[in-house]
Amino acid sequence: MQAPDLTSATLSVEQMLAAPESDYMNAAQQAFFRQRLVELHDSTRARIRDTKAQIMNPPELVDLSDRASWEEQCLILMRIVDREQKLLPKIQQALERIRLNEYGYCLETGEPIGIARLLARPTAELCADVKLCSELKEHMYVKERHV
């Protein structure tokens, strides 16, 4: 079996996962994630725009229960828009880390985040171990505040 060509900027997910550790965050992998982040940014902006347009153009509703359902749906859509608007700066920060050759490395430890984790969450800033510890600390803090 021939080793995957990692010099191409159009790597597949399979090639990314099969790449040796020594190729971690080489130019082709950075190009792959740059493209993925740009696509994520564009699709997120499009969803925000479409959702806002949907909210701004309500259907004519005469029935009170239909109106209540529409208002509830709008509340859900606004929460989605809010969440997606918070994603945009994270995407931009990830693109900046690629530009600075810092992408793919934990901001706290400097260790590799890992291809699989970045494929699942391309805006990841922390390796899985540090993120888990952070979440456990946050959970304990919230638990202590409610006791």
What is the overall pLDDT average? 88
Largest sheet, in brief, is:
none
Order of helices and strands: HHHHH
Measure the end-to-end span: 59 Å
Radius of gyration: 20 Å
| Percentage of β-strand residues | under 5%
Structural class: mainly alpha
Poorly predicted runs are 1-9
**What portion of residues is helical?**
55-70%
Number of strands: 0
What is the helix tally? 5
Structural commentary:
With 147 residues, this protein is mainly alpha-helical. 65% of the residues lie in helices and 0% in strands. The protein has 5 helices and no strands. It is extended. The protein starts with 12 loop residues before the first helix and ends with a helix. The N terminus is likely disordered.
Fold blueprint:
Elements: H1 13-18, H2 27-56, H3 64-99, H4 115-120, H5 128-145
List key phrases describing it:
single chain; 147 residues; mainly alpha; 5 helices; 0% strand; extended; disordered N terminus
Quick structural gist:
By secondary structure, this protein is an all-alpha fold.
